[in-house]
Fold this sequence. Notes:
By secondary structure, this protein is mostly helical. It contains 8 helices and no strands. It is globular and about 55 Å long. The protein starts with a helix and ends with a helix.
Amino acid sequence: MPLSFITAGFKFYKSTFLIFTLRTLPVFLLIGIFTATGETLLNDEKFFTWGAIFFILTNMFLNPFIAVLSVLIVNDLLLNSLKETIGYYLVSFQIFFKLFILSLALSLITLIGLILFILPGVYFASRLILAPFFLITENCAITEALDKSWKTTGNNQIQFVYLLLLYWFVLLIPYFLVIFLISALFINEGATEIPYFINIIMNSFLSYFQMVILAYPLFFVFKNFKASG
């Protein structure tokens, strides 16, 4: 995978991070609050059901919503046609459920492939990695997004396998590092949970980091391959 696309994505984030952060921060904080609250309630038998509700809302609504919002904002920043923030929230609200269904489909396809000796799962995931961007930027059908990703990645299959593995690595390593550091700093011998406020900040940051990787370097790869295809 050409490193220049990924590098260009990070450079663009450096020049636009303030605009991006200010427009998306409320949702990231809400994700942090919902995630931390859900974890706390799930650990209490009396409020387990409420914890499950918070967990479902976070994964069915907030996570796909912020993904749509992030990509739409970065796309318009690239086009130098940034609009009012409320417009992005309204469009994201219209698209987020389709992205949730697409994410479920991608997870299922990858899981089945991983069960079949791992390599098929990696291959399928790499060929379909661009599907969310087609769905978000073109508001196309789920099957159409999958088909377009499959065709776009067809001539560069090995490169997209490398991209997928790099993407997974970049997401997982910071996650484990943050969990390790927070646990070492804030969990004492008698404590079993991360303090609620710290948990909010941690989950907000992890969500923000994930969306930056998605909406900048990975999105830049999508834009360049789509243009050249």
